[in-house]
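Hey, I'm writing a tutorial for new members on how sequence and structure tokens pair up, and I'd like a real worked example in the thread rather than a made-up one. If someone can provide the structure for the chain below, I'll link this post from the tutorial.
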Amino acid sequence: MQLKKKTFTGTTSNEVTARETENRKIARQAAAEGFVLLKNEDHILPIKNGAKLGLYGAGAVKTIKGGTGSGDVNERECINICQGLKNAGYEITSDAWLEAYASLYEETRLKWRDEILGKLPAYNNNFFEAYSTTPFFMPCGNPVDVEKAALDGADTAIYVLSRIAGENADRHDTEGDYYISAEEKALIGQLSKAYDSLVLVINTGGLVDLAFAEEFDNIKAVLQFVQAGQEGGNAFADVISGKVTPSGKLADTWALDYKDYPSSDTFSFKNGDVNTEKYQEGIYVGYRYFDTFDVPVRYPFGYGLSYTDFSVSTKGIEAVNTESGKPEIAVTVEVTNTGDTYCGKEVVQIYVSCPQGKLAKEYRRLAGFAKTEELKPQESCSMTITFPVYQLASFDEEKAAWILEGGTYGIWVGSSIQDAEPAGSLCLDKDAVLVQCEHICPLKEELKELTPDHGRMMEKEAAWLEKTAGLPCVHMSAENIGKEIVVYSELPKHFTGRAGEIVESLSREQLVLMATGDPGKGQDAVLGSAGITVPGAAAETSSAASGEPWNLPSMALADGPAGLRLNQKYQVVDGEIVPENFMNSIEKGFFAESVKEEGTSYYQFCTAIPVGTLLAQTWNAELVKEVGEMIGKEMELFQVTLWLAPGMNIHRNPLCGRNFEYYSEDPLLSGIMASAMTLGVQKVPGCGTTIKHFACNNQEDNRMGSDSVLSERALREIYLKGFEIAVKNSQPMSIMTSYNMINGVHAANCYDICTRAARDEWGFAGAIMTDWTTTFASPRGECTAAGCMRAGNDMVMPGIPQDHENIRQELSEGTLSIQELRHCICNTVNLILQSNRYEDAVSYLEQFTGLDSYLKVEK
């Protein structure tokens, strides 16, 4: 195998490249397709190009493209909403207000910077801790001169409500965060007096309370913008102008009130205990809760308006037998654009009501979905959406098995969970065991879970059974459903293949060094910028076996998931990269002291794509796959092997500070989006994704010390399910474990999820790594490097000498066997051999011909 020659990444020219221009188009399309139109009274939108518009709010000129921390991207240019509207030909009448706001914003930012730098001594000069726990709150802006604004010639004003969020700190249900502030509300009140109509734009990383909008009759339109990446402003103008008809659908349920969420009183800091997080709602997360317990919502899961109208009719439902014995259900639908003016796309969503048998279940769950191509007025298309019956299985804790209970399964079809109507049913003659497992992650303390009233659930079931009478019914025999019995692996005595040969020949010390990232690169920080051959990369794998005869190169890993996070610029002097201060990689060097540049400048402008939630709101797996391939090509260009993305934890509560990075409250939607992103990235030879954070990383406060306490059923059906789908559907090259504990065991040291679930049950073939600083930053020190090896967590990242010392010590004491260590290193070596560090690298997916397909769509 021929190694690629390592070169300086990027270009010495600061000119915009063709790659940047083309990638911006993809980012723009993804953003526009993910915006969700929540309200559009009197068809106020779209607004004709060239119209006069009043534009106000923090996000108008300081549009938030994404979250803070490791999810940031150092792109060349970010188009804010104001610039995007002007680019599209709109006349903005509020320039004076916007200029004043920009000045206030910069002044506030400088004060915030000084506050953080002043806190450094209290945080032992740990910049990231001071930074991440001191959130920046966007100033509201000056009051509006109502009389002057009323005479500016604009009938419509746009107000952009913005919030910043990031890792290591949760949001709060307070004014200025989840709730609107008094100053913001007053400003909206002034605008409502000055303009006939208002368009409210939600530029936030998570949901916010929208009760205030009911108090202003002239808020005629509401658009869920989320955080749209570097092309957000242009994409916004595309939708506002009607160049693009909105087709996004919510990936979360928007409650009427924060207290309506089942974990509202106990989430994170809310009950005063950030050490233990009891998942008392069990499987009833998101729409599964609201739909089951009949709790009214503001906007339902899957909801989103268009500029046109669609009809969706079910044409057929049938069972599909496969060679593997894993039956599938195929639903054929016809979608028609019934409007007369606008083209548009529609999302068809399939939900299933499972029989309420021995196991209590949610009222409905998402089973399949698909998005149409753009349909012209009066144009129709036919789609067949196929999903496995395994998607309908529930986990029986008594049997430690995935089962289908005998009875009738109601199939619902529509454009949101609220609009879905019964379309047919599946009748199973008796119980069927689909997968026989063994128990994982046992509870170690009592947990009282939420359970719906059985009588009420039987009434709801009787109601939909009545509606499905006379509709198509598919009959299925349990005898014809194949049963899988999981065979749990034992530690191999010998390792085979080229990776096995290498591992068997490595010295004990080389094995120890290969167990972590490489701490010898000369970096000055270990969090988020521990690479040097690719400046700004998150880390590199070990180079302990880079010499003859092994020639195993190190691999560069870059943060995500809103694009590659690399340094915009770096210097080369006398053929060597000049190491930079860690703070140069944060906020484009906003906190770093300016230094004189020497030598040759290299530029690494990466593409900032929309955040995970916005991508999920596209409900367009093919589009997300295209975004993934774009990222893969940037990885190849910048010599990055693994992208530390996608993030795919469940939106359990809207206050999680990192929800913006993750896709949805629903595991199927999350798993399909992560699969699509992975399939796109890994189409590029030798490049791979790292799905994260595995698992139950659903809060940020005390994320390194929090214990997620939950039932095995909730763990498997909600919090592991998306990862299972991503592994079976796309076989990502790597998985990153999370900081938290799961029922008392640190995720990075958890054999049950790393080996028994991921490898033995799902067939994961890549390498597993820790999140950064997991082993030496856990509050009580229970998470160890040797513990990672025993668990099957193959790499400790980014790697420090103390990790090596721990592994050496436990090898000597016999608490870690050399064979356990070799097993982990074999997984890493196997990954390196398939990486883009070699000239003859091929697409990682080519070796996997038996990938499951959780969702197939034929158009």
